[in-house]
Specification:
Its EC number is 1.20.4.1. It comes from Pediococcus pentosaceus. It is an enzyme of class 1 (oxidoreductase). Pfam families: ArsC. By secondary structure, this protein is α+β, with helices and mostly antiparallel strands. It has one domain. 45% of the residues lie in helices and 12% in strands. It has a two-stranded antiparallel sheet.
Length: 51
C-alpha cells in the first residue's frame, strides 16, 4: 500500500505527525494566520488572501 492510500485512512493527528517528521510532504509555501491557511503559490490566491 502506497503513502497516498495510507493518508486517506489517517487521522488528522497521524497526518500532522507524519508531515512534522518529513517536511518534503508539505507543499510550499505554507502560509497560516489566525483565520486561514494556503499552500502552494498562485498569484491570485496570494493577492486575495495575503495582500
Amino acid at each position: 500500500m502506497g503513502l497516498k492510500d495510507k493518508v486517506e485512512m489517517m487521522t488528522k493527528e497521524q497526518a500532522a505527525t507524519l508531515m512534522s517528521k518529513n517536511g518534503k510532504l508539505i507543499k510550499r509555501p505554507l502560509m497560516v494566520d489566525d483565520t486561514k491557511a494556503t499552500c502552494g503559490f498562485n498569484v491570485g490566491v496570494y493577492e486575495e488572501n495575503w495582500i
